[in-house]
Design a protein that fits this description.
Elements lengths: L4 E6 L6 H14 L4 E4 L6 H4 L3 E3 L11 E4 L9 H4 L4 E6 L9 H5 L8 E3 L8 H12 L9 E8 L5 E11 L2 E2 L3 H9 L4
Parallel strand pairs: 1-2, 1-5, 2-3, 4-5, 4-6
Antiparallel strand pairs: 7-8, 8-9
Helix pairs in contact: 1-5
Length: 190
């Protein structure tokens, strides 16, 4: 069976350092050949190292057997049906808290041919959503995976940052790139 393509529809104005780190993390466990970035308006040499770059939005690609991961979808992705999809589409969105349902507003109406599925009711970082779909494709159900809601990143002896999203646990640790943690510790102001 041919491996599905994972598509990140970039919905932010530019490609922030945070987005680039998440996209690099996605490429590390999906592979460059299975990853497309759509809606990329400007050439980005860094991003080209991690997957195929497509300038146009995903709606212009006329994909068959596509699944759009939308937290607002009434149906949860199951291992059995995941195998029927050739493409998995994710919104490349820096999350808001509380969520603004941007996937439902900015992607779902424009992809009527794609079936929508959720990964549960909570919001995930994009790299976590992709990782979870990868695990579902291996036959794992959402209920068999372990998660942590909200994680705290210690910045120094006084300050810390709470990331209010849901993270998949891998070896009992939240799936978050070490580069994101370093980035947050170096970042000036929030």
């Amino acid at each position: 069976m041919k491996k599905p393509i994972f598509i990140i529809e970039h919905l932010e104005k530019g490609i922030s350092k945070w987005s680039l780190i998440e996209y690099k993390n996605i490429s590390s466990f999906i592979g460059k050949n299975n990853l497309w970035f759509t809606n990329i308006k400007r050439k980005n040499k860094s991003l080209e190292r991690y997957g195929k770059i497509i300038k146009n939005p995903v709606k212009s690609l006329s994909l068959k057997n596509a699944c759009l991961l939308d937290p607002a979808s009434p149906k949860t992705l199951s291992p059995k049906e995941a195998k029927k999809f050739s493409f998995f589409i994710f919104g490349g969105i820096l999350g808001d808290y509380p969520p603004k349902k941007r996937t439902k507003k900015e992607l779902t109406p424009f992809l009527p041919e794609a079936e929508t599925r959720n990964l549960g009711k909570k919001q995930f970082a994009t790299d976590n959503a992709v990782f979870i779909v990868k695990e579902i494709l291996k036959g794992k159900s959402i209920s068999s995976l372990k998660f942590k809601n909200k994680i705290t990143i210690k910045i120094n002896d006084i300050e810390s940052i709470i990331l209010p999203f849901k993270y998949c646990l891998v070896n009992n640790k939240p799936l978050i790139s070490k580069e994101i943690i370093s980035y947050l510790k170096r970042k000036k102001g929030f």
